[in-house]
Design brief:
- This protein is mostly beta strands.
- The chain has four domains: about 100 residues, Sandwich (Immunoglobulin-like), CATH 2.60.40; about 90 residues, Immunoglobulin-like (Sandwich); about 100 residues, Sandwich (Immunoglobulin-like), CATH 2.60.40.10; about 100 residues, Sandwich (Immunoglobulin-like).
- Helices cover about 5% and strands about 50% of the residues.
- It contains one helix and 31 strands.
- Strands 25, 26, 27, 29, 30 and 31 form a six-stranded antiparallel sheet that branches.
- About 5% of the residues have low confidence.
Amino acid sequence: MKKIRTLKRLAWVLLIAISVSCASDEKQSDRNSVTVETLRVSNITQNSALISAKIELTGKNELLSKGICISTDEKPTIDDLKIQEEGNTVSEYSFSFQNLKEDTKYYVRSYVLTNSGMIYGNEIVFTTSKTTKPTVSTLEVSMVTSRTAVAGGTILNEGTSEAGAFGVYLSSVNQIPGTTDRDIQGIRNSNKFICSINSLEPETKYYIRAYVINKSGISFGEVVTFVTEKISLTSIITNQPNSIYATAAKVGGTISSNGGSVFSSIGVCVSSVNSIPTVADAKTDIVATSENAFEISLIGLTANTKYYTRAYAVNSLGTFYGEVVPFTTKEVGVPILKISSLSGSNLGGSGGALIINNGGDPIIEYGFIWSKFENPDLSFPNISKTVKEGFFPDLNYFNATLTGGIFPSTTHYVRAYAKNSKGTGYSQVLTFTTGKN
């Protein structure tokens, strides 16, 4: 009997052990039905990186959240820096980590949180980039006169960020010019930049050094020297452009001295491409004048474009240039105007109009239109109008007598208009009413 009871107890113990073992295996099986893999690190910069991972989920586990943790120590956990996303979406995912340290080794692991607990993926190691400054070479100085010169540099390598500023530092005292010396900023073309230097002293030795700045700091080229010439007996100055519109402007120069030789031609070189224009570029010249100052009207320019101007003069001693003076043409819009006065009778009418804004371009036509119909414009088949055509860069007011197309016992609708290269602008509509004949 004792033997039978002992066998029963052993059977119960064995049954319990088997049940516990099966339950443990089932739990482990559920837990192992979730896998997360840290795939790759990409887009690595000095302070950021994009980290990707992938989840595979089978069985009964419920996905609660997923994320990526990162640390400068091995085997990072969720107690370290992390980016986490709630939800049960099972797919490849990526997070961008910002504000990392430059030139630093990082360890990353993906992870998922399920109803069975936390599961980590494999570990990947990467190192953030190191910032580098640009490298630059100083160009030889050219086109040296007593007061002007042209310098510049070649950007050999921009470094880890784009060059934000570039130019040359200039000094007649400091043999290694730097940030406390005169700064002449450049105009860039591809990997080179050009600097137009003015207001130099004659017969003076200058030290010049190119520089480039990016987010990592400033870099310098080698020091280059040059000596300005003696004061030239022939001297010409480029005047500031004026009356600047979208397609027109006035430029000119002032002759200080002809050096004892009469100028055969004078004018202004103009270019929207060459920052140091010469007579080989587009130019407007006039027969030499007895006046010291001269002015030339430029037309046919392109709106919203930067132009470089430079006065020049030619005589038996050679071709002489003034300083480079840039200007930018305006954006074009249609003119804005309003009628300031209007009167009418059975015999006719008269009106005046103010041009509030010519649209950044000279007026080429203006006048009044009137009709028996409301809101007349130039497309109406039966309108009366006054017309004045030409080139009027400084027009701000006009008036006219309205004759013809005046009817008795009728309300007449009147508008002023003005045209430029962009189109036609109209004033508000005013009216006058005639009586019976």
